[in-house]
């Protein structure tokens, strides 16, 4: 018998509880003393690739030091009872390290680099990426991250939509649904499917007045504990 599918859409709030800083935490457009426009845009990469590489090298080190939290672990544990797919706006690998086996990264992956000449040439990368590190086509490697000003990989976006249209339960965890096109994903979920939103600002969200949505205005770990207790008993 086929297991019902739960689709999770996760954002910065779930990683924040593992100690990873988010854009929402940044003050005055600064992230660890970097101006966001100097390190997270296509213009930044063109103007000063060494600075961009340094920024993401530091993010990679922080990701190594961070550990999956209870929310990550409970999402993975639900695979005992359900088909679980995670679509995440986060670039860290905490879902995978917690044990989730099907994770779609909308905005790229911190632990990968890619060719500047051919975006399909991807390389696993645990350590630093430096100027002079080249792909097999002798082109500089860059972070496998969707910079501001770049569009999502269409195949990744299509894969997320494909999962949404076939899910029985759709759960939003740790995202305010303000980033496009991820914020459109709920509208692909079948009308008969149950929808749950877990976020401290969940009470301020207004996804669709016509459907049944259960809002949990909690941080990711607390909300997932409550949800897991319900789902694991069904």
Automatic annotation (TrEMBL):
<dbReference type="Pfam" id="PF02146">
    <property type="entry name" value="SIR2"/>
</dbReference>
<keyword id="KW-0520">NAD</keyword>
<dbReference type="InterPro" id="IPR026590">
    <property type="entry name" value="Ssirtuin_cat_dom"/>
</dbReference>
<dbReference type="InterPro" id="IPR003000">
    <property type="entry name" value="Sirtuin"/>
</dbReference>
<dbReference type="InterPro" id="IPR026591">
    <property type="entry name" value="Sirtuin_cat_small_dom_sf"/>
</dbReference>
<dbReference type="InterPro" id="IPR029035">
    <property type="entry name" value="DHS-like_NAD/FAD-binding_dom"/>
</dbReference>
<keyword id="KW-0808">Transferase</keyword>
<feature type="domain" description="Deacetylase sirtuin-type">
    <location>
        <begin position="1"/>
        <end position="234"/>
    </location>
</feature>
<dbReference type="InterPro" id="IPR050134">
    <property type="entry name" value="NAD-dep_sirtuin_deacylases"/>
</dbReference>
<protein>
    <recommendedName>
        <fullName>protein acetyllysine N-acetyltransferase</fullName>
        <ecNumber>2.3.1.286</ecNumber>
    </recommendedName>
</protein>
């Amino acid at each position: 018998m086929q297991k019902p599918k739960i689709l999770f859409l996760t954002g910065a709030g779930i990683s924040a509880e593992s100690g990873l800083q988010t854009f929402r935490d940044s003050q005055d457009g600064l992230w660890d003393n970097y101006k966001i426009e100097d390190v997270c845009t296509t213009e930044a990469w063109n103007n000063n690739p060494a600075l961009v590489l340094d920024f993401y090298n530091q993010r990679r080190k922080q990701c190594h030091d961070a550990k999956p939290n209870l929310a990550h672990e409970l999402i993975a544990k639900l695979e005992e009872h359900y088909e679980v797919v995670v679509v995440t706006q986060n670039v860290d690998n905490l879902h995978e390290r917690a044990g989730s086996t099907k994770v779609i990264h909308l905005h790229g992956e911190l632990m990968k680099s890619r060719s500047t000449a051919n975006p399909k040439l991807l390389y696993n990368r645990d350590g630093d990426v430096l100027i002079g590190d080249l792909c097999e086509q002798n082109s500089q490697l860059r972070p496998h991250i969707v910079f501001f000003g770049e569009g999502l990989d269409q195949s990744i976006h299509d894969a997320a939509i494909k999962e949404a249209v076939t899910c029985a339960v759709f759960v939003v965890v740790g995202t305010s649904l303000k980033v496009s096109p991820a914020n459109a994903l709920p509208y692909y979920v079948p009308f008969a499917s149950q929808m749950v939103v877990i976020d401290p600002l969940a009470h301020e969200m207004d996804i669709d007045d016509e459907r049944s949505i259960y809002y949990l205005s909690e941080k990711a770990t607390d909300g997932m504990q409550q949800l897991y207790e319900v789902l694991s008993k069904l």
